[in-house]
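Question (not urgent): is this output format expected?
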Amino acid sequence: MENASRPVAAARRPYLIVNPHSGGGKAIRFRIAEAARDLGAQVFLIDSSQHQDLATVARRAVDNGADLLGVAGGDGTQALVAEVAAQSGLPFLVIPAGTRNHFAMDLGLDRKDPSAALEALTDGIEVCVDLGFAGDRAFVNNVSFGAYAALVQDSAYREDKIGTMMRILPEFLAHHEGPDLVVRTGPLTVDRPDAVLVSNNPYQADDPAGLGKRARLDSGLLGVLAARAETPAETGARLRSGQPHGLTHLATRDDVTVHADVPVVPVGLDGEAVTLPTPVRCRISPRTLRVRVPRHRPAAQQTAAQHAGRPGGWGAIRRVASTVGRGAHGRR
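Got this back:
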């Protein structure tokens, strides 16, 4: 990631929210809570046995004088607290203690050793990144609709993204029973896509489903991808008439609004299954979030190389759509 950075003083009253069970217990294995306390942080441990409003917990910490908010957990939890940090003008610390932590990957953090991110409390630099919003919900990675949102709703998705994708997508695309979607941004309208992904800064074009990476986090652009499963006849008709193929890919500074023929839609928000009222207006807030990262961290390019040539992502959606299209009939 090439975001500009600046040196900062050590946090005096950091507040860290820790999910001890996220990522199969990574926070426990790496003793994140203990290490954070040793560095002077106040720690709040999430209790998975009861509902806890983490945004309220974070706001209470700000009211009590916290000068930094941090999260050790997955991307969904990161987004909840990141929004409070942005609203409060406080720096935000990312501890990659979740399953995949794509936001941490794009920040160049070491996802294999989440405790390394704690160095930012005493020897850190600060980068300002964009924050995405879907309705009134913030997201640090992406918000997805249609086929991809259906994947996130499946309980097996968190542990096996590609396997769940290949299991669910063929049936979803062949027997589409979800709401009809319409995507509008600027002068562009995409009618009835099967899968839609709106990202906080664009992903690589060949892997936008969250398995790849973003070159920047401060471009002020939303990435938009929309795909529709087509029969060969539909594809041929489009090509003969000069219309675009069933895959739409763009980056835009405009808001992106997803309309549906139902009042609420299932959505994947940073990998978390939620429902949102329609229409869903997605926007980007440029350089809103101050992120505190260690001065010394793995280069983002190294992480990108680990993902190069990896199967799956949007390419898998396109391959499945092509397979379904060859056998599809009477769609909608």
